[in-house]
Design a protein that fits this description.
Structural class: alpha/beta
EC number: 1.6.5.-, 1.7.1.17
Protein name: FMN dependent NADH:quinone oxidoreductase
Distance between the termini: 16 Å
Cofactor: FMN
InterPro entries: Flavodoxin_fold, Flavoprotein-like_sf, FMN-dep_NADH:Q_OxRdtase_AzoR1, NADH:quinone_OxRdtase_FMN_depd
Enzyme class: oxidoreductase
Number of strands: 7
Helix content: 40-55%
Shape: globular
CATH topology: Rossmann fold
CATH superfamily: Flavodoxin domain
CATH architecture: 3-Layer(aba) Sandwich
Amino acid sequence: MKNILIITASIFGQDGQSSRLVSQTLDQLRQTYGDIQATYRDLSAEPVPHLDAERFGAFLTNADDRDGSQQGVVDYSDLLISEVVDADVIVMGVPMYNFGVPSVLKAYFDHIARAGITFRYTASGPVGLLEDRPVYILAARGGLYAGTPNDSQTPFIRSFLGFIGLKDVHFVYAEGLNMGDDKKENSLQEAGRAIETLTA
């Protein structure tokens, strides 16, 4: 049985196009692997707190010196990291908001990037500490951005995941979703075919 971690970040919840692409991917993974165990992390419904000085200070404080509040912050981060560690496959729905990733996704990333746990610094640079596994990114955009300088999402996500050791990253783009019904339908169909090919 494969453990699948599903991360969504659409402000429209399961009605968002990125979330619908995630559902298609999950259906396809069921066909590929048979029985799966899915862990859902809906960052819009249950936002991860944005990183501030207090929360970052909790990460830096020695375990023996943490107070109850600090330990709670660390325990929450540990839970998020454990979901990643336990997953055989990660599926992530990423809408584009104002040329970037949703702020809740950035907050999530800030809580799973922990020195000595998911990465470490060496004399030759940082090294990711997580075991690599497939990560599928379902990117939904109103306009056309892939392969252009305005696509800030792809390099950021790829760089961040690689930083913590996740390098087997696959992007599926559904673009032009606000450029008319025909364009939207064609783009979603193309994305569906890409999902079938990637997860077969």
